Structure to design on (909 residues):
């Protein structure tokens, strides 16, 4: 194991590492724009320069492409390094419009941070900036501002090395270089295209759905798990901070909406990427909600619905349950503990692949479009839902179940979060909370269990499924 | 004749480039001799000859070859760099047009020495006659069984592919060149790894300038000892100098290293056009620093003589500049070129070239400010050694070279909003 010294600290590195990798692995920070741990090394931004002690004095080179050697002495903040970085920052901001005031990236922009850290001075140029296209539609999802672009080529390399769509490239030369999508539309069809928004170190690549929606410092990320497929990618759900709640009547609803979704690096599941479907969780969770318990379509209160359910369960000779693959491990365990002994239970797929959706690929996307099938099957078996003809009580939990499969005359208890026509057909209906309104865990297809946290308070009439099951336990014939 | 001649040593006629004429001059005899030697012995001979690369950096050819250890069973590539793009340089063109078989024979010998099975000639797209001549020579060599067939009873055979570039200055940079052959935008690559370790298609690759390769046949024919008798001890051999500008007899000359510079200009090239006086000379392509008449007076044309004067012979692309030429306009032309040719990959060059171009344009427009000169220095300095390829450095050298010597002209232009001379680049005489 080669040993080297960085800023006076002796560290041990792996063979074949670069100075950047060795420093990062040991918690030493070297600034970078174009370098990315998951992408190839282009060495084009030149901001990661470090000084290396040598017989002839200190020489300065980029850290991202510098192989480590035994006993090398590296400085990340020497006078030479600071001067070089400052000159490089002058170059990078030379043609940058510095329109942070209207830029979505402001507040989480690497260029902004580095400017204050490594330059801090106004541009020394008195010449006009080079103008380029603004609001260029790279795809229906992504807007490109070429003036803000610093040509680090992270996005280009992402489409070549990670998503393999080869959807982006560089056009033209010198300070007229432009990031452009290839003509065959492969970028528009790239199901991972939105990742380039996250890896863009500046505000050049912007999400159309999030464009000018909120300053990022008004938002708060909550760690969560994407329910879009059995991969269960770790994500951050960004929503309004409580202290910055919107008060105007027409804006107020946005306080309880997901503003954007970004990946949360989890090497065991998704690495730093998620697919475009995961970006659109706001659509899934923004659907109209059921907010009151009902008896045969007539609103009632929770106590009435619970009492009716208890009597139905008590009277049933052959009760069957169809449990949700969107339920958390805690909810599923609560059902098993409360009613598992009374009901014959099957696991159903709440969601099936939608038309036009990528069903499965070799990168992240799984064919099973439910987050917790593995967790549910571990408790209730692999068998697909099959309702016996003589079933006289069917408990359905979650959406996506065909009520036509239920034998005529059987009583139906239904738990669902969404406002759907089936709700009124059930003998007893309970509105339940969704993932963003509670804490819990999902187990993905590979057996990795990930936690998600609560973002919003649930509405008054809505119950947690876990609490409902607990309230229904202790019944005659219920689980102990 | 500026000294002895090793490459331009035959009479150019309408048929002198053909295989028949080349054979009559003793062509492909050296190849037979080389194939009788051990490959390592050829590399040793080239190393012993002290041959310096003629692409501009004067890197010893033997040392470059020495890094690539021929590894039986592994793929190695050889590329002849015929993407002659340095402004003022047109010497490789002469070799390609008039001695294409010399290049083919040299590439055969080099490939044998380095264990190469496939070699490339990367030629710039603007070269038309040179392309037809080298392609014609290769076709002749295939027909004569010199290429694509096992030679002289050995197992050695070689294929040469001519690849026409789509035109860009950085295609002549070795790593940009191979990226272009691979079919991509010619972005130069970071070192390490060196191209002799991982080059074309990720395989060890030697890239030599056309003129460097053209010397190989001569070295093997006469032996390193004889070769070293030509030129000076530190710069053995000859250099093809392509001279242009305000000179009476522009063209390509083969100059033996050590030949007096002033004598070369005044006698061999016929002095300045229209009897004008020499103001300065660009020694080897615009990326080398200009030298004034007084500075070149004591110098001779060899690396050890020119380098201490703060410049270099570079690619041999000499430009003579007459007294009365406006150096502000001169630098404007250079910076426009660098701005146009910067590939846009790495920050200092991508932004710096355009910035310098805008500054010099503003000065020529009469809107310069005194700080502009220091700004040009600062940008040049910030490009020195900070870019992926040598282009940033080259532009910086050229700019600093002119600013150092003609700062007064820039100050005059900024102050008076007009050139100190008549502002033309044509010969003032």
């Amino acid at each position: 194991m080669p040993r080297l010294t960085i800023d006076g600290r002796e560290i041990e590195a792996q063979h074949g590492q670069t100075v950047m990798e060795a420093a990062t692995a040991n918690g030493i920070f070297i600034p970078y724009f174009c370098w990315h741990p998951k992408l190839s090394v282009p060495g084009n931004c030149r901001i990661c320069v470090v000084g290396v002690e040598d017989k002839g004095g200190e020489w300065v080179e980029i850290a991202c492409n510098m192989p480590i050697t035994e006993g090398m002495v590296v400085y990340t903040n020497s006078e030479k390094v600071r001067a070089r970085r400052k000159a490089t920052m002058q170059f990078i901001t030379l043609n940058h419009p510095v329109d942070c005031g209207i830029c979505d990236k402001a507040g989480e922009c690497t260029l902004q941070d580095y400017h204050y850290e490594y330059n801090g001075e106004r541009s020394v140029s008195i010449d006009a900036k080079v103008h380029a296209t603004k609001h260029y539609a790279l795809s229906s999802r992504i807007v490109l501002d070429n003036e803000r672009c610093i040509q680090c080529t992270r996005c280009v390399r992402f489409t070549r090395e990670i998503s393999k769509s080869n959807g982006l490239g560089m056009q033209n030369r010198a300070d007229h270089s432009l990031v452009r999508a290839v003509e065959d539309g492969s970028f528009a069809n790239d199901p991972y295209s939105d990742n380039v928004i996250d890896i863009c170190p500046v505000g050049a690549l912007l999400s159309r759905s999030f464009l000018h929606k909120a300053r990022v410092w008004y938002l708060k990320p909550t760690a969560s798990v994407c329910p879009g497929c059995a991969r269960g990618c770790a994500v951050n759900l960004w929503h309004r901070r409580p202290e910055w709640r919107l008060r105007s009547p027409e804006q107020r609803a946005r306080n309880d909406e997901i503003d954007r979704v970004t990946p949360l690096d989890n090497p065991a599941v998704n690495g730093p990427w998620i697919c475009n479907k995961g970006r659109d969780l706001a659509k899934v969770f923004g659907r109209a909600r059921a907010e009151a318990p009902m008896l045969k379509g007539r609103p009632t209160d929770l106590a009435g619905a619970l009492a009716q359910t208890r009597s139905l369960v008590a009277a049933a000779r052959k009760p069957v349950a169809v449990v949700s693959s969107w339920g958390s491990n805690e909810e599923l365990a609560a059902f098993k503990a409360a009613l598992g002994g009374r009901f014959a239970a099957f696991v159903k797929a709440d969601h099936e692949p939608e038309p036009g959706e990528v069903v499965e690929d070799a990168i992240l996307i799984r064919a099973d479009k439910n987050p917790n099938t593995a967790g549910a099957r571990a408790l209730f078996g692999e068998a697909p839902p099959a309702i016996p003809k003589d079933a006289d009580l069917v408990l359905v939990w979650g959406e996506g179940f065909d009520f036509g499969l239920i034998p005529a005359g059987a009583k139906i208890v239904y738990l669902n979060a969404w406002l759907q026509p089936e709700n009124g057909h059930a003998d007893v209906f309970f509105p339940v909370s969704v993932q963003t309104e509670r804490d819990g865990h999902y187990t993905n297809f590979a057996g990795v269990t990930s936690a998600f946290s609560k973002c919003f308070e649930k509405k008054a009439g809505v119950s947690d499924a876990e609490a409902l099951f607990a309230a229904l336990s202790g019944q005659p014939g219920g689980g102990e | 004749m500026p000294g002895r001649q090793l490459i331009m040593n035959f009479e150019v006629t309408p048929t002198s480039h053909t295989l028949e004429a080349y054979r009559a001059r003793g062509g492909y005899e050296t190849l037979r001799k080389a194939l009788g030697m051990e490959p390592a012995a050829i590399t040793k001979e080239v190393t012993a000859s002290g041959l310096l690369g003629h692409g501009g950096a004067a890197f010893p050819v033997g040392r470059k070859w020495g890094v690539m250890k021929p590894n039986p069973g592994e793929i190695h590539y050889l590329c002849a760099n015929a993407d002659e793009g340095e402004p003022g340089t047109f010497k490789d063109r002469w070799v390609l047009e008039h001695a294409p078989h010399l290049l083919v024979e040299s590439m055969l010998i080099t490939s044998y020495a380095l264990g190469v099975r496939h070699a490339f000639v990367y030629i710039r797209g603007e070269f038309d006659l040179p392309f037809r001549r080298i392609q014609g020579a290769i076709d002749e060599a295939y027909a004569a069984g010199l290429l694509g067939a096992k030679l002289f009873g050995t197992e050695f055979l070689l294929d040469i592919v001519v690849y026409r570039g789509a035109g860009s200055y950085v295609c002549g940079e070795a790593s940009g060149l191979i990226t272009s052959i691979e079919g991509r935008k010619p972005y130069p690559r970071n070192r390490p790894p060196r191209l002799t370790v991982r080059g074309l298609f990720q395989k060890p690759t030697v890239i030599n300038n056309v003129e460097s390769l053209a010397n190989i046949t001569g070295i093997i024919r006469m032996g390193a000892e004889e070769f070293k008798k030509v030129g000076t001890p530190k710069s053995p051999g000859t250099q093809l100098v392509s001279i242009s500008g305000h000179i009476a007899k522009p063209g390509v000359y083969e100059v033996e290293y050590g030949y007096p510079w002033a004598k070369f200009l005044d006698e061999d090239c016929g002095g300045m056009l229209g009897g004008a006086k020499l103001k300065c000379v660009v020694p080897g392509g615009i990326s080398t620093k200009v030298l004034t008449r007084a500075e070149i007076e004591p110098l001779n044309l060899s690396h050890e003589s020119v380098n201490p004067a703060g410049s270099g012979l570079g690619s041999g692309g000499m430009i003579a500049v007459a007294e009365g030429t406006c150096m502000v306009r001169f630098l404007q032309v250079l910076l426009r070129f660098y701005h146009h040719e910067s590939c846009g990959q790495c920050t200092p060059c991508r932004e710096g070239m355009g910035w310098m171009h805008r500054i010099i344009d503003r000065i020529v427009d009469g809107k310069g400010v005194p700080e502009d000169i220091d700004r040009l220095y600062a940008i040049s300095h910030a490009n020195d050694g900070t870019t992926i390829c040598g282009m940033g450095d080259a532009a910086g050298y050229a700019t600093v070279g002119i600013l150092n010597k003609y700062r007064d002209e820039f100050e005059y232009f900024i102050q008076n909003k007009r050139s100190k001379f008549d502002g033309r680049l044509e010969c003032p005489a």
Notes: Chain A has three domains: 3-92, 124-284, 294-472.
